[in-house]
Structures are given as structure tokens and as C-alpha cells.
């Protein structure tokens, strides 16, 4: 993988900077995702998609496959939540 930070690392650091929490991982992202506006949710999912694409382009090591599976699961859950929020007008 390149020297660029991956999606979860950026989210973790952002959460630490803004919320003062020690760990801000996928569970916290899912819990707070509905607080974002539609544009911010779409941008977050675009960043997540880019991270998933970069994993598929780099390699297929065991760690990469686990990370890919975790990101895909997070993407499915966030996508479903985004669609639900859009249906109710948020």
C-alpha cells in the first residue's frame, strides 16, 4: 500500500482531533453517520470506495483481504443507512 493514510486511519485521527476520544473506528462511524448531511455522507462513502479500490489494485495478502472484507461490510452498512436517510428526507 502507498504512504497515503487509509480511510480508517483518517477517520480515527479525525475522531481523535474533534471528539477527543482515544479510538474512533468503524462502529463509531456507523453510530454517527446519520448525523452527517447527505453531501458529507456521500463524500465519506466516495472516500471509502476509493480506499476499497486501492486495496484491490495493490495485492491480495491475508491482511489486505481482511481489511477489504471489513471495508466492504462497512460500505454496505453505510450505504443502506444512507439510502434509508435519503428516503425519509434527510
Radius of gyration: 14 Å
Structural class: mainly alpha
Report the end-to-end length measured between terminal Cα atoms: 36 Å
What is the tally of helical segments? 4
Number of strands: 0
Report the biggest beta sheet as strand number plus sense, adding barrel if it closes: none
Q: How much is the average pLDDT? A: 77
| Approximate helicity band | over 70%
Describe this structure in words.
- This protein is mainly alpha-helical and 90 residues long.
- It has one domain (7-87).
- Helices cover 74% and strands 0% of the residues.
- The protein has four helices and no strands.
- It has helices at 7-19, 26-32, 38-58, 62-87.
- Helix 3 (38-58) packs antiparallel against helix 4.
- The longest helix is centred in the last third of the chain and has 26 residues, at 62-87.
- The chain is elongated, with a radius of gyration of 14 Å.
- The model has no long low-confidence stretch (mean pLDDT 77).
Amino acid at each position: 500500500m502507498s504512504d497515503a493514510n487509509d480511510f480508517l486511519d483518517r477517520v480515527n485521527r479525525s475522531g481523535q482531533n474533534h471528539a477527543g476520544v482515544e479510538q474512533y473506528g468503524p462502529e463509531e462511524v456507523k453510530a454517527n453517520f446519520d448525523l452527517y448531511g447527505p453531501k458529507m455522507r456521500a463524500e465519506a462513502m466516495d472516500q471509502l470506495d476509493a480506499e476499497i479500490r486501492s486495496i484491490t489494485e495493490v495485492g491480495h495478502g491475508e491482511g489486505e483481504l481482511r481489511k477489504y472484507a471489513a471495508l466492504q461490510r462497512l460500505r454496505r452498512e453505510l450505504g443502506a443507512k444512507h439510502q434509508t436517510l435519503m428516503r425519509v428526507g434527510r
